[in-house]
Amino acid sequence: MKQNTTKTVPTSIDATLGMLAGADYLADRSLATVLFLALKMGRPLFLEGEAGVGKTEISKVLSTTLGRRLIRLQCYEGLDIASAVYEWSYAAQMIAIRAAEAGGERDSQRIEHDVFSERFLIKRPLLQALEPDPAGAPVLLIDELDRSDEAFEAFLLEVLADFQVTIPELGTVKAEHPPIVIITSNRTREIHDALKRRCLYHWVGYPNAARELEIVRAKVPGISKKLSEQVVSFVQALRRQDLFKSPGVAETLDWATALSELDAVALDPATVSDTLGVLLKYQDDIAKLEGGKVKELLDQMQVELRAAE
Predict the structure, then answer these.
(1) Which of 107, 179, 239, 271 gives 140 a disulfide partner, CB atoms 3.0 to 4.6 angstroms apart?
(2) Residues 155, 35: Cα–Cα separation, whole Å
(3) Domain boundaries, the chain
C-alpha cells in the first residue's frame, strides 16, 4: 500500500472522524474517541468484535493517513519469540564460522562475537516495530491475539510495558518512540486482564443499517441505490437469525460487489440462493436458509424498506 508523507496525529475527536472518513472508514463517534485517546496518550488500542467488522482495517487506515509503516504480526497457536521477535540465521552463521576457520582464525571468542552480530539477526515484527523510522513511529498491528497461546500473551505484556526486548547476545533494544499499537481479538478466548489494563479498549460491533449503507456506497461506488438498500436490509435481517456466524461488514461488501458484477438490479430468491456462499461461510447456516426462508426474509425486507420511505 502506498503511503502518504508523514502527518501528525489528529488533534480532536472530530479530526479523528474526518481522518477515518477520508480513508472511507465510516466509524461511529465512540470508536473515534477511543482511537483519538489512544493516539494522544500513546497507549495500545485493544479492539474486540466479531470477524469482519473492520478491526484490522483501523491499522491500515492509520498507516495510510499518517504516512507510517504498517508492521503486522498475525497471531496463531504456537507463535513464539523466534517468529514474533527475532531469531538467528543459523545457516549463515555456520558458513561464517567455517569461512573464518578456513582463513586461519582460531580465536573462538572473536568468531562468536562476529557471528552474533546484527548482520546475522533476522528481525521479526515486534523487533522491527521498536526500531527508529524516518517516517515516524510505525503502526504495529497485533492481529487476532486470541489465536495465540497464553505464554505468548504473557511475553507480549512485558514488551508493551516498556516497549523493549532483550537479545542476550546483543543487549536491550528499546523504542525511542513507541509504535502505534493496535491489538485485535475475535474473542475465541478471553484475553488476560493484565494485558487489557495496558490498553484502551473498544468493542467493535456491527454497524446499524444507516452506517452500513454509507459503507457499501463508499466501498462499492457502482452499486445502484435500490440494490444497496436491499443488500443492507437483507444482511441486517440475516444477523437477527440464529446463525453460527453472522455476516460481517466485509461479507456485506463482498456480496454487494458480487451482485454488481452479476449486473443484478434487485434481490430475488434465485439470486440470493445462488450467491449465499459469498455472504455465509458455513454450510449449516446456508442450509437454514433453504426452502422458503430466503423468500420470507426478502418479504420482510420489502416491508421494512417501505416503512422507511
Answers:
(1) 179
(2) 25
(3) 13-77+129-203, 86-118, 209-308
d(CA 220, CA 121): 44
* 81-136 pLDDT tens trace: 999 999 999 999 898 888 877 877 667 777 777 888 889 999 999 999 999 999 89
Residue 212: Cβ-neighbour burial (10 angstroms; 0-12, 13-18, 19+): buried
Q: Retrieve residue 203's grid coordinates.
A: 468493542
Say how far apart CA 221 and CA 219 lie, in whole Å: 6
- Residues 6 or more apart whose CB falls under 8 angstroms from that of 180 comprise 38, 39, 62, 66, 68, 137, 138, 139, 140
> What distance in Å separates the CA atoms of residue 188 and residue 150, rounded to the nearest whole number?
13
Predicted TM-score (pTM) of the model is: 0.88
